[in-house]
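Q: Structure for this?
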Amino acid sequence: MAVSTRYLTQKIAKVLVWVGALSTIAVMLLILLKVLSEGLPSLGLRFFFDSPKEMGREGGILPMILGTAALTAVALSVATPLGVGTAIFLREYTREGRISRMIRFGTDCLAGVPSIIFGLFGFVFFVIYLNMGWSILSGGLTLAAMILPTIISTSEEAIKAIPEKYRDVSYSLGGTKWQTVIHTILPSALPGIFTGIILSIGRSIGETAALVLTAGSSLLMPTSLFSPIRTMSVHFYILATEGISMKMAYETGAALILLVLVVNTIANWLLNRYVRHRS
Amino acid sequence: MSAIGVEGEIMAPQDKIVIQDFNFIYSELHALRSIDLKIQSNEILSLFGPSMSGKTTLLKSLNRLTDLIFGVRHTGMIFLDGMDIYDPEVDVTHLRRRVGMVFDLPTPLRMSIFENVVYGPRLSGIRDKKRLTEIAEKALRSAVLWEEVKDRLHTSALRLSGGQQQRLCIARVLALEPEVLLLDEPCSGLDPISTLKIEESLIELKKEYTIVIVPHNVQQASRISDRAGFFLSGELIEIGTTYQIFTKPKDKRTEDYVTGKFG
């Protein structure tokens, strides 16, 4: 009796686990297939290199691609040093205590804030109070605040995973704390930190709500950090919700997916090369 | 570095390290109990005894690696060439370059063989490529590893065998030209042939360095050391020449341990 019950439980568990895994894959495939099947057939190379015409009914999305890239670059170049620095502080420069608990609580809170709130903050603080206007800079700084928790927590995990013996070695060879961080901790943690950066790139490319409020929705080609821009996601959103062109919306979506794929592939390739080089 | 060497010669102390009434306490555990010990220049001193007897803690106290552990304290003094190593004025990175340490398991850093060896010299500010190459060759030769790796210095250190990795770790410490070499069960993960090679190189190294080793068994202590000290539960039970300790121990506990009645 007991044996058959255990056997049955085993069977049910197996089915549940499989259903979970398969439905995850199915949902992902459905979304990808839908967007790609609608967008890919009419997607030409020109779409990537043309400016939009007639509000986006015709033409391409070059300004959006450049704007998205610039915005992501600003966000990463602000959030990465801050985030990695915080992670190093938490793991190497302080012990578990009030300060580290406060920082962790703060980043957890930051991670839980809905993006529209970030948008509102960015709008009030960067766009209006600091008078940066709708711009790559305003949007990028807002995004930086949004991706900071991800970068901190992935970097901290990566640093935590480094065996204590590497620190001992570095210190025993006369390394100072900073030298140990630079020559031993960071190189070993780099793959993990990189993962956080890739996740953050995804978040940056996908973010919409906060960016309408901070980076604007201009169709013009960006010329400086103070140019207003429209990211690809915002473009997609506006094309779809304002009934401008579903066809172009899907093409933008497909282009977005392809670009994310390319970025992730390159990033992974670089990462593997780095890891192989070091082992 | 050289100034220190000269200073050491002027003082010409027979005793390289003097430990006086040294106690070490982890938050709960009294790991070392009033240790008095003198370590002479150019000797190999073995510190042996069952695990948890405080040998590693004593080694790590000698170059203040214990500073990295949270919630510990110590009393008593340790002198290196007459200098109190716990004096607040002491530059601890400098101390660690003078008192190098090799750990129980090979710990090559994830970089090339060459980069591993010159890690310490680089941190101390040597940039010149030619000088670093010379240092690396000298250190690898001293650790009897040069012949095996000279053609692949720039491949990853992780591809070496365990024995080679441990000799690399010794070379890495030698590259700093330390005065004292601390070895914490350096052969514990190695096969007998690798162990033999390391032991041979240690006997060679004794000419230039003062060596304190925690051997991984009693036999190793008897093979390589000039003097041996027996530790039990944080106390230094007995210390003497290796011959005396292993043939005519004065303390019953030492005798029981070296004859294998316990341990």
